[in-house]
Amino acid sequence: MALIDLTPRRSERLRADLLLLLVALIWGSAFVAQRIAAQKIGINYFNGVRFIVAALFLLLPARSRLAAWFRSTDKNLGGIFMAGLLLFGGTTLQQWGLRYTTAGNAGFITGLYVVFIPLILAIGWRQKVNRMTWVAVGCSAAGMFLLSTEGKFVANPGDALELAGAVLWAGHVILIGRLVRHMDVLPLAIGQYLVTGILSLGVSLAIEQGANRLMGELWWTVVYTGVLSVGVGYTLQAIGQRVAPPTDAAIILSSEAVFAALSGWIILNEILSDRQLAGCALIFAGIVFAQLNRLAE
Fold first, then answer.
1. What are phi and psi of 268, to 5 degrees?
2. Confidence check: pLDDT of 80 > 90
3. CA-to-CA distance for 147 and 274, rounded, in angstroms?
4. Is 48 contained in some domain?
5. C-beta separation of 170 from 120 below 8 A
6. Domain assignment of residue 7, yes or no
7. Environment class of residue 126 by beta-carbon count within 10 Å: exposed (0-12), middle (13-18) or buried (19+)?
8. Which region holds residue 208: left if phi is over 0, alpha if psi is between -120 and 50, else beta?
9. Domain limits at 54?
10. I need a labelling partner for 241 at 20 to 30 A (CA). Which of 20, 24, 35, 187 fits?
11. Is the pTM of this model over 0.85?
12. How many domains is the chain built from?
């Protein structure tokens, strides 16, 4: 009987993990479009428009059911707003930090959310983290270090902004994992996108002049990242986290850096060094350890 009980559960978990791996692939492939847009479009304007596009992308096919959904999630409006606020803070701090630090530092420090999640859960919620999980987290963090910095980390003024952003990303993953347990995914996704988009556009109006001057020729970056990276990616993340615990989800999502590097290699002709390839291997080793840990439970 034990095997009958466990097999469906493991099958469901495998589907969730594969879904999160697909999310990492989507986010990584969108990195090229984000890099192109970040150089020519205002950061907050770009984020604001693409998150609004993502919300509209999900609103249109689901509009007939929205009223019922939101009536049933009144008690979760605070959580939806907090998820949007964390998403806004993470994306903003990450992009601002890139003005004062290297892309390598930003990638590595942002990836530290994979370490912060088990720490926050252990300290804030007294959740026990076993040894195998820490091994998986350590592999992922070491892989991020090699992949992003080639093992040559040099401190920069923007690193503190990236570190603050990593804490917010960790909080977002934890919060999503809790919200999806007792509410539908689509109202959560649409709600947090609207919050992030409105806050980003508000900041853009306040501090960015001429932020949209090149939007016409780069419209595809907004549509691509808005529909695919945000609309599809973050929504599938929420679906996957219905089953996968936050720490395991973060370990799998850390492979975004690998897919981003591969996209840069394929599309932008960026070269991966031996250390960066070793970093890719370590990140995937972390994912394997996380799966072995789950199978051992």
1. -105, 5
2. yes
3. 9
4. yes
5. yes
6. no
7. exposed
8. beta
9. 15-296
10. 35
11. yes
12. 1
The percent of residues in the chain predicted with pLDDT above 90, rounded, is 53
The residue among 236, 244, 227, 251 whose CA lies nearest residue 170 is 251
Averaged pLDDT, 16-40: 86
Quote the pLDDT of residue 170: 96
Residue carrying the six token digits 């978990």? 13
Residue 6 lies in a domain: no
Q: Which residues contact 288 (CB under 8 A, 6 or more apart)?
A: none
CA separation for the pair 287, 282 (Å, rounded): 9
Run of H or E including 224: helix 219-224
Place of tokens 């034990």: 2
Burial class (CB in 10 A: 0-12, 13-18, 19+), 246: buried
Label residue 138 by pLDDT band (50, 70, 90).
very high
Residue 3 lies in a domain: no
Asked if the model's pLDDT at residue 71 lies above 80, the reply is: no
Q: Coil, strand, or helix at residue 273?
A: coil
Residue from 168, 177, 205 nearest 85 by CA: 168
